[in-house]
Amino acid sequence: MRTLLLAALTLASLPRAAHAHDFWLEPSGDASYLLRYGHRGGETLAIDAAKVKAIRCVESGEAARDLRDGAVFTATEAKVTARCAAISAFNDGGYYSLTPDGEKNLPKNQVPDAVRSWASRQFAKWVDPRSPVAEKPVGDELEIVPVTDLAKTKVGDKIAIRVLFQGKPAPGAVVAVDHRPIGETDSDGVTRLRLKSPGVQSLTTSLRRPLGTAEADALVLEASLTFEVVR
Q1: pLDDT confidence bin for 163, thresholds 50/70/90
Q2: pTM value > 0.85
Q3: Which of 24, 83, 101, 218 could join 224 in a cystine, given CB atoms 3.0 to 4.6 angstroms apart?
Q4: In which domain, by residue range, is 126 found?
């Protein structure tokens, strides 16, 4: 039991994006988007509508519109009908506590045998590479923003992305492509990666910040960016 607990503690000390499920958006037809949870390209898991707090649509020159109330939820996805240059969603996972018997979706002060705890927040964003909105922040607490003009890229090109936390560059954020970590962001919140395949690209990042409240020891944030290589 002690060995298993130590292994679990080691895993919990890593950013959750290294082993957690993805939360992402992708287009579905000409004027709709699907919000999903699980592993893109693999298993899709149940999505909790109560935890999805916002779905925002951004168009060039317009204020963001929250489409959450119009989303149609099924057991494994949410569908939004709209035309957006960028669309983002926020999933508030709540509090998690690690115990000798595993994880519980409860704050530390409600779990007497908790040995580690965290608050979980996930953000998903899709952008249209052809729009100037693609290179601008949408205002999520954690988000990936392209630095390179995606409309001019093709398979084999190297692109730069910046991770922002509360609107500021986030150094040390872990970045992954299709679940494969490629490194951490530098002091400017930037890292670079090569586009290795055509079609929809899926980037994720994770960040851990100390919290130190009665409910949780840390805040763990995850964000995804999806876009399509258009050349």
Answers
A1: very high
A2: yes
A3: 24
A4: 2-229
